[in-house]
Amino acid sequence: MKPVNVGLLGLGTVGAGTVNLLANNAKEIGRRAGRVVRITHAAVQNLDKPRECPTDGITLTTDPFAVVNDPDIDVVLELIGGEDDAYKLVMAAIEQGKHVVTANKHLIALHGNEIFAAADKHDVVVTFEAAVAGGIPIIKAIREGLAANHIEWLAGIINGTGNFILSQMKFEGADFAEALAEAQALGYAEADPTFDVDGIDAAHKLAILGSIAFGIPLSFDRIYTQGIRGIHADDIAYAEEMGYRIKHLGIARRNDGSIELRVHPTLVSEKALLANVEGEKNAVMVYGDAVGPTVYYGAGAGAGPTASAVVADLIDTVRMMSVDPTGRVPHLAFQPDQITDTPILGNEGFFCGHYFRVQVADEPGVMSRITGLLAQHEISIEAILQKDPETAGDDALIIIVTKPVIEGQVMKFFDSLDDLPETRPGLVHMRVAQFED
Amino acid sequence: MKPVNVGLLGLGTVGAGTVNLLANNAKEIGRRAGRVVRITHAAVQNLDKPRECPTDGITLTTDPFAVVNDPDIDVVLELIGGEDDAYKLVMAAIEQGKHVVTANKHLIALHGNEIFAAADKHDVVVTFEAAVAGGIPIIKAIREGLAANHIEWLAGIINGTGNFILSQMKFEGADFAEALAEAQALGYAEADPTFDVDGIDAAHKLAILGSIAFGIPLSFDRIYTQGIRGIHADDIAYAEEMGYRIKHLGIARRNDGSIELRVHPTLVSEKALLANVEGEKNAVMVYGDAVGPTVYYGAGAGAGPTASAVVADLIDTVRMMSVDPTGRVPHLAFQPDQITDTPILGNEGFFCGHYFRVQVADEPGVMSRITGLLAQHEISIEAILQKDPETAGDDALIIIVTKPVIEGQVMKFFDSLDDLPETRPGLVHMRVAQFED
C-alpha cells in the first residue's frame, strides 16, 4: 500500500520526539498500522540549528506554508504551538484537504469551533489527543470508550507544572516561589510561568474536555479560572491536618440546565485517588452514568508522552484514510500476519522479590541457618520479621522479603530450607513486585 | 441513514443492562453516533421469565441461531457467556458476515485465535472491550491510544471479586472464608467461586491483554496462574508491617526474547497506585517506552459498566460500517449539528465545600462572632482549626472547612466577615470537592 506522507510543522522538543518515536518504533508501529508512515517534510525556524533527532530523508524548509501546500503531503502535524501562525497554517492545511494532527491546546481551546467547522466542510479530520494530558489517551477514552455514557462530571490534574509545584510545597515545605524556581530549574516550568501557574493552560485543556464530555462548543472564555500563586505552604499544612490535600483541578460538571467549568485549587480528601497523584503527573477522573467513576493517569507533558499521543492520532488518521478492511484496528492490535509466537517464560525464570513465611522450631541458631541458606543461594534480604504468636506454640514464625532474584534460585533455596530439621511444613510464598508510578 | 439492527444473545444481567443503557441514553448516543442503533431480536432461555429491562419492540426467541441467521440483523451481541454455545454462535454469526460484540473473556481467551482468523476471512470485526476490566476502556487504550509505543509491561487488578476479598481481609481482618462469604452475599462472587478465586478469570483477561500488548497469539494455557485461596489474614498484616499490600495481579512483561504472563498474589509497596485500589474496582497499569507509566481505573464488573463497554464497541462497529465521513468519530465527540450551547454556570452558583483562613484580633468572642455569621448565612462547618503562629503576632488564625453550600452564600458571608472589626485583610479562600472513587 502507498506510504502516507506526513509534513511536520515545528522540530522542537515535541517535533523531534515525534520523529524519534516514529524511527525507533517503526517496526512495532508498522506491525500495528499495516502501513508505512513517513515524515517527508519539516518546517523549522532555522535550518542550521542542531536537531534533537535525525533528519535523513526529511526535506527541511523555513516556510511552513510550503509544507502545508505541498500536494504530496497527506497529513500535517502542527507542533509549532502558539496561536496565530498555528491557526493560519491549520486552516490552510484543511483548505488543501489535508488531515491535521495537533498538540496545540491553546489553538484548539480558542479556535477549535472554527477549525472543526472548516474540517467538516472540507471532509478532513483534525485530531488533538496530545493537547490534553500528554500521553494519556483521555480524548479517546471520553470520545469513544465512554461514548455510551451520559457524562456527569470530570475532574482532573491537567497541568503537570502546577502539580509538581504543589507536590514540592507539600513534601519539602517549600513556599510557592522556591517550588516554582525548582520547577524552572528542572525544565518543568517556562521562564514565564504565567500559563501554568495562573491556570490558563489548565483552562485550555478543560475547555476541550468539557466540550467532548457534554457536547457544548469550546468555551474557554467562560471558564472560571484561578491559579496557584496564592497558595501558601501553611495552607497545605493546615489542609493536611484536617485530612485534605490541595490539588489544582479542572472540573466540568452538569447542573440542571447548565454546566460548570472551573479551574481552581481544590481541597480533596487525602484518601481520594486524585489526592495521591504527585509530581508532574496528570490524572483525569471521569464519571459516566453507566460506568461510574473511571480514572486515567500518566505523564502530562514531555517529548515522549506527547509524541506517543501525536503518533497515535497519526495512526488513527491513517486507518481512517483506508476505506478497505485492512485499514481497520486489528483484533489483536497487530496485523494478523504480524502476530509472533514469542516464547512464554516459565516461572523459574521470573525475576522479582519474594515473600515467604515459614514456621520453625524456636531453637538457638535457626535464624542464622536460614539466613545462611539465603546467602548460599545468593539471595539478598529486603526485610525480615520474627513473630511468636500463640498459634505457633513453642515455634516461631519467620517472615522474609527478599530483593529481586531469579525464581529458580528461590525454588532451590526452598528445597534446602525444607531439609532443615527445624522447618515445619506449610511454607507460604508470594511474589513482590515494584511498579514505577 | 438506515438504522443498524442488532441481535442480542442473552438477556441476563449484562444483556438487560445493555438494553436499558441503549434506551436510557438513546438521545445522547444518537448525538454522538449520528445513527440509530436498535436491538430488534433477543434470544433468551425462557420466554416467560421476568426481565430486568423493557422488551417492547424486541422479538424474543429461545433459538439463538435464529437470531444469528436472521438476514435483517447487522450486528450480533454475544452476552450468554460460557464457552461451547458461545463459540458456535459467534462462529456462525461470522460466517453469516455479521459483526460481533462480545463480553466473553472465557471465549476470547480460549478461542480468540480461531475466531479472529474467521472474522478476518469473512471481513467482519469481533470486538471485546467488555471482556477485560468491565467499563474501563483498556483494550482501546492499549490497541489504539498507545499504538505508537513498544509496551514494556503491564500489571493489573483485573478480577474485582478477588480484590474485594483482599480488601475485606485487610480492612476487617477477616479470614479468606469469611471474606468470600461476604462477597457471595453481596453478589460479587458466584456460588462456585473457582474462576475468581483460583485466578482463572484473571488469566483469561491477562491472555487478552498480553496479546494486544505484545502481538502474540492468545496463550491462556501458558499463563502461570495462582489464586488467592492460600492467603491468610496474618500474611496481609505482616506484609503491611513491612510497608506492603497484597494484591492479586495479572502481569505481562517482555524479557529478552521471551514474555512473562503470570497471575498471582503480589506484594506491592503501600505507596504504589495499584496498592490503593480497593473493593471490587479494577485498575491496569501499562508501561510504554514513549509514554512511560499510565494507569486506567474503574469498575471491573456489573451491569452498567459492562454495558458501557458493550455499547461503546457497538458504536465503534457502527462507525466502521459507514464508509462515508459522517460515520467518523466527531471532532467534539458529538455530531456537529448536535453541539448545544448549554449555559455555563457562574461561580456564585457553584455548590461545594469551602476552605478559608482568616487572621483576626485574638479577642474574647471572636470565634463566636465568626461562627455566628456562618450560622446566619446557613453555612455548616465541617472542620475548624485555630492557630496562634508567631507570624500572626497577637492575632490568631482561624481556618474553617465548610460543608457544601452555594458559593453565593459564602461570598455574602465573606462580605459580612470583612465588616467585623476583628478581621484583618488577606482572607485566603479555596474550594473543597469530593470525588467518589
From TrEMBL, chains A, B:
Domain ACT: 355-430
Record-level Gene Ontology MF annotations: homoserine dehydrogenase activity
Pfam families per UniProt: ACT, Homoserine_dh, NAD_binding_3
UniProt organism field: Spectribacter acetivorans
Record PROSITE patterns: ACT, HOMOSER_DHGENASE
NCBIfam families in UniProt: PRK06349.1
Keyword Kinase recorded: no
Reactions catalysed according to its record: L-homoserine + NAD(+) = L-aspartate 4-semialdehyde + NADH + H(+)
InterPro entries listed in its UniProt record: ACT-like_dom_sf, ACT_dom, Asp/hSer_DH_NAD-bd, HDH, HDH_cat, HDH_CS, NAD(P)-bd_dom_sf
Protein name: Homoserine dehydrogenase
CDD domains named among the record's database cross-references: ACT_HSDH-Hom
Recorded metabolic or biological pathway in which this protein acts: Amino-acid biosynthesis; L-threonine biosynthesis; L-threonine from L-aspartate: step 3/5; Amino-acid biosynthesis; L-methionine biosynthesis via de novo pathway; L-homoserine from L-aspartate: step 3/3
Protein family according to the UniProt entry: Belongs to the homoserine dehydrogenase family.
Keyword Ion transport: no
Keyword tags: Amino-acid biosynthesis, Methionine biosynthesis, NADP, Oxidoreductase, Threonine biosynthesis
EC number per UniProt: 1.1.1.3
